[in-house]
Amino acid sequence: MHKEGRCTVELKDLFDQYAQLLYCGPGEAGNGAVTDDPVDDAADIEADIQQEIQGMQNTTSKQQALFTPVKIEVQCVLFFKTRQPVEPVSLVHRICEDAFYDKALKRTRFVKRLTPMTRMGKANERSLEEVSKLVLGPVFHDDGREWKFAIRPTIRNHQAMKRDEIIKRVADLAGKPHTVDLTRYDRLILVDVYRTLNAIAQNILGMSVVSDDYEKFKRYNLAEIYEPTRPESTAGVTVNAPTQ
User: What value does the mean pLDDT of the chain take?
Assistant: First the structure.
């Protein structure tokens, strides 16, 4: 459990660094810190994490915080709520781009994959259509360009909406003159659907459109960018964040 806590602190610190760089003047970003010093005692680790998280909450008010961790109780998944002027897709792209071109500046130890969500809603057919129109409109309908696109759903703890149904509906909403190309796409539509396991269980849907370098940047997996998996040892499952 303490690794998820350290991952939260690590992400908050990373996001605040980029908020300072991309959105804020000196002193306007929220505060967050993570230490690389090894700690052997599990109790000390847990206490340290709680202290750091509490410090994050106390030093930055809700009105000022650009990034707020939200507990959703989905295994290996952490969620951060953002507010303007943060744009999740460009933020995550910049973080992964910097990591890709300068691996010596490794900023994370526990974080795995980053998944931006431009809009979120309930995981049902009506909300899928509403979220799709808001997310896809500026990319596919407002600038007059023709795109080749692909759709990549990720579904966790959820059975009501089927993968094929999501793909078909989103493709219809992207519409013509755009065409589907699964391997040489110009834009990739990410759709995340999951059921939270906290006190108020709910089905959540998030969506974003990312660029054609998604595979180049290891599907926004920072761990893979910094230390690529060797071809001969690819068996196994990569998770978003460690649990123990």
Answer: 82
pTM over 0.70: yes
| CA terminus-to-terminus distance, the chain | 5
Q: Residue 220 carries which DSSP code?
A: G
C-alpha 185, offset from chain centre = 21
Residue 41 pLDDT > 80: no
Q: Can you state the angle between helices 2-22 and 88-101, rounded to 10 degrees? A: 100
- Burial per residue of 7-33, b for 16 or more beta-carbon CB atoms within 10 angstroms, e otherwise: bbbbbbbbbbebbbebeeeeeebbebe
Residue 241 has pLDDT above 70, yes or no: no
* Angle formed by the axes of helices 163-174 and 125-136, nearest 10°: 40
For residue 88, say if its preceding peptide bond is cis, omega within 30 degrees of 0. Answer: no
Spatial separation of the C-alpha atoms in residues 12 and 5, rounded to whole Å: 11
